[in-house]
């Protein structure tokens, strides 16, 4: 019996231990990044793992450090088979876990492996704000426009300082004391600074002038799409892709001789693809996507898929260079998938 225990103790590391170099851990990512107490929070953990190992996230543990400060410990467990045969090359992994919603306060998320924290991520959980954010009708890099902010019980009467960090725009607003009932509606215009083309999250933070137990900052978010200066301007018949770099329009002709311009349908959270319809919004005739193949072939790629046998002509314009490409289908022909991997040169 003693010999058996000794053998098990000697060979257990071969079955259960994971070499330190067998995995790497990236900084966890939260969604949403700045949550309110009403919103469930999801964490995504990525990294690399020895090819024949598996990893899982255990149940998180929340530790209260003070009335408004908490630590969340998220354990990760890695399991590997015996080292025979030789281990496989490392491979990437992606894991997600639902954490919240959480009470208002300050949090530190610790990713724990082998009993030790390998990454820490600090974030705030806010109260739910009441500010109404009106976005500009058109926002371009050189002329992003202004926001119109409307709320009650806020002392601001002029533009607030704006902070831009990455793709996040933060606008702080001071408010009246929580104990004073808000009675006055205010509204003012908040100019935006010049921005790089892209997608932004606007965060309006309303904080009480004096901190009370219930005086946690209130948060309202909105999404802002900033187009390239001089690029594509979207409308009902113009589809703009890749922050307005590419302009797409189409015309059609049916079997009784009618003609018209296609209607554009942008896709939410998808700046590289879109739809076009000819006869009704419930019947999309063209699906189009422009892909960035610059790192592969030094070209932009265009893919067009049609579900109609009417005649069409699609024109794609690179607003950065002025070059155009046209694609089409003859009347009555069964359309084919168009895969143009030589559409436009990269800068």
Describe the protein's topology.
Layout: H1 2-16, E1 23-25, E2 29-31, E3 42-50, E4 54-57, E5 61-66, E6 69-79, E7 90-98, E8 105-113, E9 116-125, E10 127-128, E11 132-134, E12 146-152, E13 163-165, E14 168-175, E15 185-191, E16 198-208, E17 218-226, E18 239-241, E19 246-253, E20 259-261, E21 263-267, E22 270-277, E23 284-293, H2 294-297, E24 299-306, E25 311-318, E26 324-329, E27 338-345
Parallel strand pairs: 6-8, 10-17, 14-16
Antiparallel strand pairs: 1-3, 2-3, 3-7, 4-6, 5-6, 8-9, 11-12, 12-15, 13-14, 16-17, 18-19, 19-20, 19-25, 21-22, 22-23, 23-24, 24-27, 25-26
Describe the structure.
5% of the residues lie in helices and 52% in strands. The protein is built from two helices and 27 strands. It folds into three domains: 2-125, no CATH class; 127-226; 239-345, no CATH class. The longest helix has 15 residues, at 2-16. The strands form six sheets. Strands 4, 5, 6, 8 and 9 form a five-stranded mixed beta sheet that branches. The protein has a five-stranded mixed beta sheet with strand order 10-17-16-14-13, with no helix packed on it.
């Amino acid at each position: 019996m003693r010999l058996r225990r000794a053998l098990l103790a000697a060979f257990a590391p071969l079955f259960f231990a994971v070499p330190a170099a067998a995995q790497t851990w990236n900084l966890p990512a939260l969604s949403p990044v700045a949550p309110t107490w009403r919103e469930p929070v999801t964490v995504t953990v990525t990294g690399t793992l020895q090819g024949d190992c598996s990893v899982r996230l255990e149940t998180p543990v929340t530790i209260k450090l003070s009335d408004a400060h908490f630590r969340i410990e998220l354990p990760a467990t890695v399991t590997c088979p015996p080292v025979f045969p030789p281990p496989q090359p490392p491979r990437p992994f992606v894991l997600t876990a639902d954490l919240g919603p959480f009470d208002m306060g300050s949090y530190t998320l610790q990713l724990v492996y082998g009993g030790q924290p390998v990454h820490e991520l600090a974030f705030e959980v806010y109260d739910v704000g009441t500010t109404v954010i009106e976005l500009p009708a058109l926002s371009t890099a050189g002329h992003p426009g202004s926001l119109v902010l409307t709320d009650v019980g806020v002392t601001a009467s002029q533009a607030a300082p704006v902070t831009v960090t990455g793709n996040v725009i933060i606008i702080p607003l001071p408010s009246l004391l929580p104990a004073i009932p808000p009675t006055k509606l205010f509204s003012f215009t908040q100019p935006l600074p010049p921005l790089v083309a892209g997608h932004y999250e606007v965060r309006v933070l309303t904080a009480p002038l004096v901190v009370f137990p219930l005086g946690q900052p209130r948060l309202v978010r909105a999404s802002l799409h900033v187009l390239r200066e001089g690029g594509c301007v979207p409308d009902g018949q113009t589809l703009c892709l890749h922050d307005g770099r590419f302009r797409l329009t189409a015309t059609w002709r049916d079997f009784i001789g009618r003609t018209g311009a296609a209607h554009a349908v942008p896709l939410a959270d998808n700046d590289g693809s879109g739809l076009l319809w000819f006869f009704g919004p419930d019947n999309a005739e063209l699906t189009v996507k422009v892909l960035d193949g610059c790192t592969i072939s030094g070209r932009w790629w265009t893919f067009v898929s049609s579900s109609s046998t009417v005649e069409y002509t699609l024109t794609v314009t690179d607003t950065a260079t002025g070059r155009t490409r046209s694609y089409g289908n003859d009347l009555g022909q069964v359309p084919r998938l168009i895969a143009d991997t030589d559409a436009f040169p990269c800068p």
